[in-house]
Structures are given as structure tokens and as C-alpha cells.
Amino acid sequence: MKKNSLIFALLSSMLFLAVSAYGSNDLKILRERTFTGKALYGFMNGGSDLYYEYDFAELKALDVSSGGKKFSVELYKMGSPEDAFGIYSIHAFGFHTRDTILDYCNFSKYQMQAAVGDVYVSIVYETPCLGVNMDAVEIARMFINEEVKKPDIPLEVLSNANGVTGNIKMMRGPLSVMNGAPTAAHYLDEVPGGALWKFQENINGDYLFLFIVDNEHYLKTVMSRIPEPCLVFEKKDRVLFKIN
Length: 244
Hints:
Layout: H1 3-21, E1 28-36, H2 40-44, H3 48-52, E2 58-66, E3 69-77, H4 81-91, E4 97-98, E5 105-107, E6 111-116, E7 119-125, H5 134-140, H6 155-158, E8 169-171, H7 174-180, E9 195-200, E10 207-212, H8 216-225, E11 231-234, E12 238-242
């Protein structure tokens, strides 16, 4: 059994133990499905290509009920905590509350999202909630380990950004760049690999872009496309720039 599948199998076992402990709230699993590899196409049609850019490994999709309320739970195991944060960052919009109960989470009227370790969590609820949906939080905590490794957000980003969720976005390929930073797409055209971080800084509100890649040729290609007035700094494996 592959490591990713083994981890999710252990999570499933933990889930059934949690269900027993949570019996007073009448938690029931109505349906459970697992998707690995290219099978994700069958779950979300064309939208799966975006997940593959973030090294998608496995999805557990469950329909559950608790206290007479129904929830759709989706747990996406990605290649790393950075990948899980990346796919989360692309989906983080339209929320009313962020980064409260968990380090990286958000709540909208009908959905909770979070990035915890290498798992992106989405919980959709039928009953609207204008605050933190604690039912969704408790359900999420049955599946996730809050002590896992956090994403390695570059210091240049984290120390200067005006908030995380809804602001910092991490992109791994052309689809995620077009979703998260379309104005920067031509800088990375035909440049494979690496990661593009976009954030609004907390001083003057400028949007900045940090491109990191462990390939000197690719880095020089991107740098050659950046107008000199837009270049903030360059280092061995990264370049920080803005777009006028």
C-alpha cells in the first residue's frame, strides 16, 4: 500500500472511532467515496486539472449528518503542506471570517475551508451560518491533525503581507496562475516548475510577486521579462517584483 493511501486508511479508522465518541450529536456517515490519481476527473470533471498542478494524491469525499443537519466533507491530500495551502489559497474568496479557529481557514455562509498540513479541507453545509460554523469545525477535527507541519510560506511574503487567507496566493502552474495572478502569466510562459507567490503588502498596499525556482535558467528567463523599474530584488533562487 502506498504511503498516501495508508495515511488515509488510518484517517478512516480514526473517523469511525470519532463517530462513536461523537454519538451524542448523532453524527452519521451517509456516503463515503475515495478518489486517487486520474479518478479525480470523475468527481469534478474539468476542474481536476488545477488540483494536479498541486500534486494531488487522494480525495476522501463524505456526506454526513449531525443534529439533523447535512454536511459535504472533502479532504484533498496534496503533495506537501505548501501544495495544500496553494490549492486552498486559490479557493479562498467570498468569506466573512478567516484565520480564527485554525491557522489557515475561512468561513462563508455555506462553506468552511482550511489548509491543515498536506490536506485541503472543504465542508459545505445546507444550513446557512453567518459566523464560525462550529459544527463544521468539530466535524473537520475528526479528520485532521492540527499538530502537523505547517506550510513553509517564504519569510519575504509572510512578514510583509496584509493578512494570509484571501491575500497570499501560491501558484504552481499555468492554470493556477491564470486563477490567482493572471496579470503575471506572461512572465512565467513556458517556464515549468517553481512557485509563484502573490500578496498585497501591509505598508502601501502594492501587490508583489515572488517567484522561486531551483533552476538558474528558468529564473533568468523570468527575470529577463521583468521591466527593471518593477524589480524589487533578486537572489540565487528567487526574484521579487511588482506589476505596474
